[in-house]
Design a protein that fits this description.
Length: 774
């Protein structure tokens, strides 16, 4: 994605989230191989930890080494977004950055993907812990105690705790022996440990030392510093040291398994990476209790009640909004409770929610919609995730809601636990980004990228005839130079409104770039296109910006043959537009110049009388020094245009009756350069542009804007400077009194060789003597 203008760049640079646009590198089978960063904003650069220059035009695998073969291989499946032409939103842990992100990706240009990244590490880890706990509980509840698969809780505990290895042990023979039932971790590490010890770990029976039982009693996590300490000496210090070094482990945590009313029926051992504490302690304690409870073969209802109580701390302590539903016999649903975070986020109190059905709580229409979601969770028996917009007491918000079913031993879903996240702001940001991607920020029309996509999509036989109008906005550069870019933007917006108003709702109106627009019209023949052009021209004559009518040069072309290239039709419309523009260019430029001069007269002292007096004196000087007729004509044009650059200086500065401030004087000194740009933009006036630029230079080199001196200053500019100063002295201004002929002569003598060309001053003084009426 190319950031087309300052406003668009400003918008994206000020997003609170990371933004990137990448080009997809694919093989000949459209399999994604890599990405190249085309653009990133400062937020994403900071997330990655590199400067934008170190990222842009670099491959993803170079910016984030290990991405392709690491845990982030999912990124390369995003290439499918291009074929599916839809946005995708998901949360993912990006391994090279070691953080969670909410990612919204979409393709708005063939071969490219844009994505927004919002870090959600803290919330996601909390939600993942909760989800993991609930999902693990679901698996445990569905197991039969007699056929217990210990590998399930071992794998779950490793994921929950962040341990490198987890071992589950049960106590046998009245707690005299301990049997290792399952080990979770890298198989290669487990194999190396078995080789060091001389036996397979899974199924091995260990002698239990009584002190060890007392050391882990109480159902809490206990930390040990070594394998030797954990085994109470059953494994020697030398062997323990070798295992620590081989497996690269640090602290070891142990928690007992509660089995009915018996304690010390088993334990779980967590072998942590070096210098890393165990994660999710509360959840581990809860889950360890669940494993022990399952082994006790409690009745399904008693087990479920106890699990619900065990969830209470996590349920009410989390910052994520959560609620609990009971599933009735006829698949009806009734809310049981919601946590504090849910009450604060929604404005629904515990009393208002408790015992209500979705229809009773949310109303008929929304209640039935939500009920269908709950039914889907029950029918599939899996986690359901969806987005919903809810009008709540706390205000309308967009939620991402997760539903987790909890099963009875019979396989029926008894409860549903729901957790929600407010994604209103991220959705708004996604909408804004998509708008920026498909629209021109200044005019609100579709942009070129969108139009090119639509042209390809609609270029089908059933859309023929297809007509295209190409429009070029006359005078935009002159308006920008004369009135400023704000006025130029108003001219663009006015032209866009004219096009939208004159075209039909099915037509695609887009800003093609700069001062050009394109209207794409399926099922439209030449006659209809010409009629639309006439409406556009007629409305333009009635639409004014800065006292000047909006002027559009229009060209049309039509595709009547399915084999004709749509790009060829666009080129025909462009050529037709340029022919019209050439025919009308002089009149449109003259209209702009007239508007500029009239506006200048209205806001300053640049009257026709001022110009005539300057011109009369300047031409007399020119005649006396022998200027040719061509040079005199050039001098006449220069006098007319010399102060055109003052057009975008505020009127209060131009007409101020007292001394200007330094800031105001700095504004005044910009007008020669502005006038130079205006004159350069018009072929008929370009030959006086350098004279306009230099007419405030001084003979001694202290003038502006370039500090030229003596005959470095063009001759016509030196004559204009004398004529301009004379006219100001001859006629009064709020900041200067009118001077007499003798005073004027004295002033010019003092300024000769300093401000003005001394030779020209001598000529002027003779004109002044010979022309007493001047």
């Amino acid at each position: 994605m190319e950031l087309g203008n300052d406003k668009q760049r400003f918008y994206i640079e000020n997003l609170p989230d990371g933004f990137a646009c990448c080009r997809v590198i694919s093989d000949d089978k459209d399999n994604t191989l890599d990405f190249i960063f085309l653009e990133v904003n400062a937020v994403l650069a900071e997330m990655i930890g590199l400067s934008r220059e170190e990222i842009i035009n670099k491959k993803l695998t170079a910016v984030l080494p290990g991405t392709k073969n690491g845990d982030c291989g999912w990124v390369f499946d995003l290439g499918k977004v291009i074929q599916e032409e839809k946005s995708v939103s998901f949360e993912q842990y990006i391994d090279p950055l070691q953080k969670w992100y909410e990612v919204t990706a979409y393709s708005d240009e063939p071969g490219c993907i844009s994505a927004v990244f919002r870090e959600t590490t803290a919330k996601k880890e909390e939600l993942i812990s909760l989800k993991a706990l609930l999902q693990m509980a679901e698996k445990l509840i569905s197991l039969d105690a007699e056929t217990m698969d210990y590998q399930i809780p071992a794998d779950a505990m490793q994921k929950l705790s962040g341990a490198k290895y987890v071992a589950i042990n049960t106590y046998e023979n009245d707690c005299t022996k301990m049997v290792t039932r399952a080990i979770s971790g890298r198989p290669s590490g487990i194999s190396r440990a078995a080789a060091i010890l001389g036996f397979d770990l899974t199924g091995h029976a260990w002698e239990i030392i009584p002190e060890r039982l007392r050391g882990v009693k109480g159902g809490k996590l206990v930390c040990f510093r070594s394998i030797n300490e954990t085994s109470m000496g059953a494994i020697s210090e030398k062997m323990s040291s070798l295992l620590h070094k081989t497996l690269d482990i640090g602290d070891i945590y142990v928690i007992e398994l509660v089995y009915g009313k018996k304690l010390n029926h088993g334990d779980i051992i967590f072998f942590m990476p070096r210098n890393q504490a165990i994660k999710n302690k509360e959840a581990i304690v809860l889950y360890a209790g669940q494993v022990g409870s399952l082994l006790a073969r409690l009745e399904s209802e008693e087990t479920l009640n106890r699990k619900t109580k065990e969830y209470e701390t996590l349920f009410h302590g989390t910052q994520s909004p959560m609620f609990l539903l009971e599933v009735g016999d006829s698949k009806t649903f009734c809310y049981i409770r919601n946590n504090l975070a849910h009450r604060e986020a929604t404005g629904i109190s515990a009393e208002e929610m408790r015992g209500k059905t979705p229809v009773e709580l949310l109303g008929e229409e929304l209640g039935h919609e939500v009920t269908n979601r709950y039914s889907q969770c029950v029918q599939t028996g899996t986690l359901i995730q969806y987005e919903e917009t809810l009008p709540l007491p706390a205000g309308e918000k967009i939620w991402q809601t997760n539903l987790v079913p909890l099963f009875e031993s019979s396989g029926e879903v008894k409860y549903i636990i729901g957790s929600s996240q407010d994604i209103t702001e991220s959705k708004k940001a996604e909408k804004d980004i998509r708008f920026v991607s498909f629209h021109d920020v200044t005019t609100g029309l579709y942009n070129r990228r969108y139009l090119e996509t639509e042209m390809q999509r609609l270029d089908t036989e059933r859309q023929i005839p297809i007509s295209i109008i190409m429009a070029d906005l006359n005078g935009l550069k002159l308006i920008n130079d004369g009135y400023g870019h704000a006025a130029g933007d108003r001219l663009l917006v006015s032209a866009a409104k004219v096009l939208k108003q004159c075209c039909r709702c099915e037509d695609v109106v887009a800003r093609w770039g700069g001062d050009e627009f394109v209207v794409f019209m399926p099922l439209t023949d030449e006659t209809a296109a010409e009629a639309i052009c006439k409406r556009i021209t007629k409305l333009c004559r009635k639409t004014y910006v800065e006292n000047m009518p909006v002027s559009l040069a229009l060209g049309t072309a039509c595709k009547n043959d399915k084999d004709k290239s749509i790009t060829g039709v666009l080129k025909e419309a462009e050529n037709d537009m340029y022919r019209q523009k050439l025919a009308e260019s002089r009149s449109s430029r003259n209209a702009v110049i007239s508007a500029l001069l009239n506006t200048l007269k209205e806001k300053s002292f640049e009257t026709e009388e001022h110009t005539r007096e300057m011109l009369r004196v300047a031409q007399k000087i020119g005649s006396r020094i022998g200027l040719s007729s061509s040079e005199l004509n050039q001098l006449k044009l220069l006098i007319t245009m010399h102060d055109i650059g003052k057009i975008n200086i505020p009127e209060e500065i131009l007409t101020k009756g007292e001394a200007l401030t330094p800031e105001e004087w700095a504004e005044i000194k910009k007008h020669p350069e502005t006038g130079y740009r205006i004159a350069r933009a018009i072929e008929e006036f370009s030959h006086v542009a350098i004279d306009i630029l230099t007419h405030h230079e001084r003979w001694d080199g202290t003038g502006y804007p370039q500090g030229l001196k003596k005959k470095e200053i063009p001759l016509l500019a030196r004559i204009t400077a004398i004529a301009d100063a004379y006219e100001i002295m001859l006629n009064s201004r709020p900041y200067k009194k009118k001077k007499s002929k003798s005073e004027i002569a004295a002033d010019f003598k003092r300024s000769s060789g300093i401000q003005f060309d001394p030779e020209l001053v001598e000529v002027f003084l003779k004109v002044l003597e010979d022309e007493p009426d001047c």
